Amino acid sequence: MITELMNQYISYTAVFFNHLVLVYALCISASYVVLATMSAIAMKQYKERNSFVDYRTILASQFSPSVSLIAPAYNESMTIVDNVRSLLALHYNNYEVIIVNDGSKDNTLALLIEAYELEKIDLLPDNQVKTKPIRGIYKAKNPAYHKLVVVDKENGGKADALNVGINVSSNKLIACIDVDCVLESDSLLKLVKPFMEEKTPVIATGGVIRIANSCVVEDGRLVKVEVPDKFIPRVQVLEYFRAFLMGRMAWAHVNGLLLISGAFGMFDKATVIKAGGYNHNTVGEDMELLVRMRRMLYEEKKPCKVAFIPDPLCWTEAPQTWDILKKQRNRWTRGTAETLLLHRKMILNKRYGILGLVSLPMWVLFEWLAPLIEFLGLLFFIILAILGYANWLYFFSFLGLVYSFAIMVSVFAILFEERSYQQYKRPGHMLKLVLTALLEPFLYHPVTVWAAVKGNYDLITGKKSWGEMTRAGFAQKKS
Amino acid sequence: MEQTLLDILPAIDDKLVQFNLYLTAGFVGLTLGLIAFILLSRLRYGFRFTRRRRTEEDIQIFLTSYIFEDHTDEDALTAFASHYIQKRGHRQIVLENIVSLHKNLIGESADKLRHLYQQLGLQQYCKQKLYSGYWHEIAKGISELADMGINKYSELIRTFINHPHPTLRSEAQIALLKLKSDAPFSFLDDLKEPLLDWQQLQLARAAYKSHVLTIPNFERWLGSKEESIVIFCLRMISFYGQHSASDTILGLLQHPSAKVREEAIITLRQLETCDAVPMLTNMFANESTDIQLEILRTLPAISDRQSIPFFEQILGVENRRLQLAAARALCQSGQEGKSKVLAIKNNPEHALQQLAATALSYKV
Question: Which value does ipTM take for this structure?
Answer without folding.
Answer: 0.87
